[in-house]
Amino acid sequence: MESLWFNLVWLVAYFAVLVCMSGYGLHRLLMVILYIKHRRNVPEPMGQWAELPVVTVQLPMYNERFVVEGLLEKVTAIDYPKDKLEIQILDDSTDDTWELCRQQVEFYAKQGFDIKCLHRTNRTGYKAGALEEATEVARGDFLLILDADFRPEPDILRVIMPYFTDEQVALVQTRWGHINRNKNLLTRLQSIFLDGHFALEQSVRNRSGRFFTFNGTAGVWRKSAIADAGGWEHDTITEDMDLSYRAQIKGWRFVYLNDYVTPAELPEDIDGFKTQQHRWTKGSIQVCRKMLTTIWRAKVPLKVKLEATTHLTCNYSYLGLILLCILVMPVCTGVVQPTGAWSWQSPRMLLLTFSLFFFATVTVCMFYVAAEIIVRPKRWWMVFFFLIPLLALGVGMGVNNAKAVLEGMFGRTAVFERTPKFGESGQTKLSVEQRAPGYQALKSGLVPLVEIVFGVFFLLVECGALYYGATQDPMGFVNFVLMSPFLGFFYTGAGSIRRVIQGMLRRRRASVAVS
Q1: What confidence tier does 475 reach under pLDDT thresholds 50, 70, 90?
Q2: Which residues are marked as active site?
Q3: pTM value?
Q4: Is residue 440 classed exposed, middle or buried when 0-12, 13-18 and 19+ CB atoms within 10 A define those classes?
Q5: Which of 127, 148, 244, 390 has the fewest CB atoms nearer than 10 Å to its CB?
């Protein structure tokens, strides 16, 4: 009897986690359906400006020696009257980036640009704090915010500014492009992940009347809307998401331009990617804690509340993923299994497992294929070569992102760790040794070792599943193999360990050279 209850409780927990995670897969399918439904609802500006307004370009940066020159070269090439354009470099750097900024300011000031560098000797509030201070002294009524690795096209303001003739528009966001998409496998996978977010999620949310959020860069804000929403706040590390929800609850409208691309650089190594994902994941949980109740109390449509809830809670699925890691082994190896009318071979269990397989895996694949059809209509079919690595990487990031979720849930101090940027679009290509002094990745601690342990664990599970798979959950087994969790965990863990070893060897060579 005790064994029967243990078997029942374990299976209920196993399927409960799968159902919850499949719910987010169902949301991906909904995004595809809504995109098809609203694909022709392309936002159009109400009119044109009789006299162009003043725009302030804000460039937040922290130790960006590799990209500052390329950024300013592009910003000063923006097609907009010089007397209507102000450039603010918001520099919190602790290295020689400050000196480079000063030289660049002198150079472009001589060419007639209204450009200044606002250098802070502390990082109070991090990026949000820098934006808060700079906005108070900005000359423009509209603020174009660009991270240091972005490369705006010359016509960006000519395209965006007409949308602000509608006085209810607070933000116009452009879609991110990827300068170094084809650099390596990791950048290819990242580009697919981001294409799904930008080409589908952001576009659908905007066109279907739901809330979407500013992505922190490559967009223009109306300064008065920022003030009306309460200004930049730095109690989370995703200040862009926080401000977005506050502004839209206030009644301000956002516009998303899916057909206009602003190129940027993707992290090229696993540590940079982990740092970025850790910050985004932790920040979204912080905003969830801060804003979810407020959103449900706001006088907005139910569809808005439901979409915001899905958006803000989706990262909790990483905790579900880790829990699934614990629950899956006895199920795959036959230690725990349903019996009687709910045996694996029964029609009702086959229907259940097929449904979970469909929503946990197939819908995710459909989502990213649809995104690539939008972004790369002539080469979208190439995404099929990357679907299994994509799923594996998503699983492999589970430990890193689950850690971020826990930190966001339990209020660990929010430190803004930036993503590495090396100016890959520039004329000079930097070696690993040249890059290292300019960027210190988020200290991964024991995370890579835990990832390797999970990789070994799942390798053993998969071996057991191959042995017992003929009599176990067929759809679950296929799903498990497709997700290739052991490959994902080995990739993320070994990638970080490799970087640590490279750093040790580099320091050793440097010490030998000095001696």
Answers
A1: low
A2: 92, 240
A3: 0.90
A4: middle
A5: 390
| CA 339 – CA 4 distance, rounded (Å) | 10
Coil/strand/helix, residue 92 = coil
Report which of 497, 463, 494 is spatially closest to residue 481, judged by C-alpha positions.
463
Q: What is the domain range of residue 509?
A: 316-338+346-424+442-514
pLDDT digits (tens, 9 = 90+) for 121-146: 888 899 999 999 999 999 999 999 99
The rounded distance, in Å, linking the Cα atoms of 471 and 478 is 13
> Two tokens at 339?
């019996």
**Distance in angstroms (rounded) separating the CA atoms of residues 419 and 400:** 15
How buried is 14 (Cβ within 10 angstroms: 0-12 exposed, 13-18 middle, 19+ buried)?
buried
With residues binned 3-state (H G I as helix, E B as strand, rest as coil), the percentages for the chain, rounded to 5, are: 60, 10, 30
Residues 297 and 369 in one domain: no
How sure is the predictor about 213, in pLDDT bands with cuts at 50, 70 and 90? very high
pLDDT for 272 beyond 80: yes
Question: Would you say residue 108 lies in a domain?
Answer: yes
Average pLDDT, the chain: 88
* 142 burial level (CB within 10 Å; 0-12, 13-18, 19+): buried
Total domains in the chain come to 2
Residue type (1 letter), 61: M
